[in-house]
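Open question from group meeting: does this chain pack into something compact, or does most of it stay loose? Before anyone orders reagents, we agreed to write out a predicted structure and look at it together. Recording both the input and the output here so the notebook holds the full record.
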Amino acid sequence: MILVAIVLGTLVAGIGSVWLAALLSFGVLARYTQHMLSLAAGALLATAFMHLLPEAFEGQAGADDLFMTLLIGLVFFFLLDKAELWHHGHEHHHDHSHDEVHGAHGAHGHSHAAPARSGSWAVLTGDSVHCFGDGILIASAFMADIRLGVIASLAVLAHEVPHHMGDLMVLRSGSSNKRAALVKVSLAGAVTAIGGLVGFWLVDQLQDYLPYFLVVASSSFVYVALADLIPQLQKRLTARETGAQIAWLLAGIALVTLVSGMAHHGH
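Structure tokens returned:
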């Protein structure tokens, strides 16, 4: 039963986010990209601090060890990011037309002038590694508690959307075919389910280490929110735009709280 839930959760998060990204990039919703970033940041932070970490601390593991794991996790994701395996979609810009769409990408300081074709494999590799990692994180959340799994899947879904939008832009700049770009990114998204299966097996073998898996999941979420999403929101904006960002950030937090509230009533 748990396995079915993991596969469903990872597929929804992995492939659902790609399709939603396509709707946002190619469709009427394109102007809401910035709001998606705020919403995702709020959802990730709330999931980490209100759900994953409390669940981890309810286990047998000591607080010192768990905080140490959190710190190591944050440094680890920072290093993965440096290796460009974790956060890719935003950095690769081949022409300026996307910059208006994505806003503050300059924060990353990577402006690759390389032709997009060589970039697209890097993007897909990075994406696959990322999705695989997300799958393991979702699986460990499900193994702790079905409700937690659902919340983690939604948080992953929320933060993968802005990423996949970046990926689709990069792939489109390499070849003009929307469908090919969508298929490639969907396949990378589907890797989430493989990560989910590996995660299920791993956590099953290492049941006692579940709190540590949850803390690593939290460190991933916190890192993504603070290092990847929020810097893109830190441009100088008018008071009204700043207000909108804060509102969407709070909406992300509220969404997670609401889902967990509903999940509690469901039991």
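Observations to bring back to the group:
The radius of gyration is 18 Å.
The CA atoms of residues 127 and 193 lie 13 Å apart.
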